Amino acid sequence: VFKQRSQPAVALTWVGDGATKTTAFHEGVNLAAVLRVPAIFVLQNNQVALGTRLDQHQIGPFASWGKAYGVAGYPCDGNNVLDVYAATKLAADRARNGLGPVFIYAETFRMGGHATHDESEARKLFPPKIFEHWGKRDPIGMYESFLVRRGVPSETLEKTENGVIEE
Fold it and tell me: pTM value?
């Protein structure tokens, strides 16, 4: 609809690594590519799909998928707010300029299960050191550290957080 109406809007959707193995995903990406619609597909490589590690359902890098569909792709650190923003900005500009859909490949990690019922199962899939590594890479904490290093007072961040909690 955006393309037909010549609107500068872009559709954005995201999908986890496991859901990329569905027919609907591939049909949707293929049609978007054929029609050259202004869409962004964020592929969250969170390393696990409903109890199945990435190495059990994926061969090769996601970054190669763009070539298969004839669309551009931008990799980013899915735990770095600014990196994700930059990739999204590039993707949106490209899609708005009539160059068709774009992939964003966001590397991240699912710290727990998909729901409370599989929380303990998720913890059994990976060694504790993996959770320790990714736990130190919490996107909010990393961005807060960045802001403090840039001179934003901690009190300002606390006030903002409290305002969000109240809201």
Answer: 0.85
